[in-house]
Amino acid sequence: MTSKPASLSILLVEDQLSVARNISEYMEEKGHVFDFTGQGQHGLDLALENYYDLIILDLNLPVMDGLEVCQQIRAKSARHIPILMLTARDSIEDKVSGFTAGADDYLTKPFSLQELEVRCLALSRRHLLQTNDILTLGCLSVDRKRQQATRDGKVLNLHAMGFRILTELAEAYPQVVSRSVLSQKIWGDEPTESDAMRSHIYQLRNVLDKPFDYPILKTVHGIGFTLDINNEK
């Protein structure tokens, strides 16, 4: 029995509307979720504001080209977002420039949409395999493989939803994760009541902070949540 490929959240930065439409229609039929823009600066803003499993980035963009967008993402993003570069150029020099800027893979136009999806899935899997199972942030340790977290060496008795929220915050650290992004990562496009997030955060605080001398889960009013590891007392 063949398992169904994972659904990816993808940002497509491509200024040729016909190419963008073909890619998005094909990939959405395969179950992947897309955001799209034809402008480099807008693509950079989206990449830094939202969580994506992968970015498909065209090299030849107006004003801010793909190389600059890639370099800015690498310089400003708190996490490594896999980037697949698209280009009509196929010279070795162009490919070297793309990889030097921080691209993870390269695909030359014209290309097969089936190959594009296969490369995206492979790139996403490779990134996950290269990610350390254990995140250590000061007093906090999050073991993604064992689904277990500890603070000051003490195992935290977290429910599944609390562990997921804590993992998202730890992966984004030190950035603030907005309520909308956190909801998207946990519930996807399924609507949820506003009180649900409040309840889960409350339960997480009871386990993560209440038994200890000081809190590390912080609310940034009007924005979202972050971990305050640097302010350990």
TrEMBL record:
The keyword Phosphoprotein applies. Residues 9-124 form the Response regulatory domain. InterPro entries: CheY-like_superfamily, OmpR/PhoB-type_DNA-bd, Sig_transdc_resp-reg_receiver, WalR-like, WH-like_DNA-bd_sf. The modification 4-aspartylphosphate is found at residue 58. Residues 132-229 bind DNA. It comes from the Bacteria. One of its GO terms (biological process) is regulation of DNA-templated transcription. GO terms for molecular function: phosphorelay response regulator activity; transcription cis-regulatory region binding. The keyword Repeat does not apply. Keywords: DNA-binding, Phosphoprotein, Transcription, Transcription regulation, Two-component regulatory system. Residues 132-229 form the OmpR/PhoB-type domain. Pfam families: Response_reg, Trans_reg_C. GO terms for cellular component: cytosol; protein-DNA complex. PANTHER family: REGULATOR OF RPOS. This is Response regulator transcription factor. It comes from Shewanella atlantica.
